[in-house]
Fold:
Amino acid sequence: WEPAYRDGWPMAIVMVAGSLIAGSTPLGGGVVAFFVSVFVLKLTPKEGRDFACLIQSVGMVAAAYLILTCKRDMLHMELIVTTILAGTWGLVVGFSLTVNPLVLNVVFTTVIISFALIYFYLNEYYMPRADRAAQAQQAAGDSGDALTPALPTTPRTIILRRVIMVFFAVGGGVLSAQLGSGSDTASFVFTVLVWNSVSPKHDHINMSVASASSVVIMAAHTVETAAMVLIAGGSSPQVYHCLLAAAPVVVLGAPLGSLLLRPSLVKVLQRLFYVLALVQFVSFAYLKVKTNMNAWAGILSGLLTASLGIAVHFADRKSVV
Structure:
């Protein structure tokens, strides 16, 4: 324990915030673990991935157990089963790839800042307007949904969303294999921007169900990734020291984070996440990217893709809000 806390005490402190992020957003604490381990503790990107998946195999499994035993009604089984099965292939592919450390860091930073952009749009623009529209409809006495029978989901819609779901799941699996996190983010983004956009209203998945389901998905994938790491020969002593130091924090923080949050605190933590994502992006751009045009091209491509997804969702849902 002495060398564990000597090497890993900064990670134990940081994972308090990582647990809060995991509990308040559909984003695993592994994103914090990867950034701190690589940019603060100076571990290699591979070691950062190893630590992220190992620590989440403790925290995310604890959170998933709590959801499965206490909040099973918040889980969407089709989303969970399909994403876990398809994402496992992505894990295998991603684990077999050898990626340049700079490319890996660029991908990590781009995923986080792109997700922050999407999450900001949903929380600060779309959801408040949708809530106001629903309240106005209720105040006006409009009960159209109750009087109009729900149209069945067409076979074409079911096939379309499953095909796209597999694409997102495989991509999330590749990210998880390389970064230790990503399947949860990919499933949440797919649910909100794709599933709800192509499905009739009665078949939508709300954000709380999408978030809870993403925890179970990431728990399964992080255990698989941790097993692959151990089968491949394990990791460095410093990674295990960080794991020992941080495990007692996340095994309590990950499952309890969502239970201890209050509605007023949720909004504060969401905005804290936006700030942290922006600080991380600026720090990485200043310290690592600098004038590397190829890296900037990758980052801008990711932001453009996220912006395109937001634009499509906005155009599709404009009539609702």
Remarks:
- The radius of gyration is 20 Å.
